[in-house]
Amino acid sequence: RLPVLTNFNENRIRSVIETAGGNIFICTDGGIYKSNKNRKNWKNINLAGSNVVERNGVLIATSTKGIMRSTDAGETWAMVISEGGVGIDVELIQGGIAAITYNTASKTRRIRASYDDGKTWQPIDAGLKGSQSISSIIQVGDNFFCGHPSGIFKSSDKGKTWKLLLPSVKDKVFKLSVSGNVIYAIPVVEGC
Length: 192
Prior knowledge:
This protein is 0% helix and 54% strand. The chain contains no helices and 18 strands.
């Protein structure tokens, strides 16, 4: 059975997730929409967000003000990373969650990880040059990979150090995704 969303006037869907509890979340430029198991009623639950992930029943989402956390299936949200920035991306990693944020004052993006379901966050971008356009963070095996304006970087020590694997393509940053052990790198124009 497919979910039905009527009167949906959003131009851009950024991601869709079904939680272990059966809820569906659609992230759009205009908000995060939620439907329960019956798929008949949809509710705009928060400000714009591009991604939601779930770990151990806890939801972590990007927002225009930072990174949010919900422990009640998206009914209420608390900001967990806000320091003057925007939530760019959240990804599941082994045993935790990685997040990319943009600080509007310093005009740089940061990468952090949480290993306690989003309660606390630690930087994992030591040695990466500050940038406005870090696009993605993924994990394959024990290694992190980062799409950075300088190219694709790899960390074998959970973000303590990074090594350049593949230089960037002019004026582009690689957006990374993973399927199994295969990494896909798509060069996109720097920025959002």
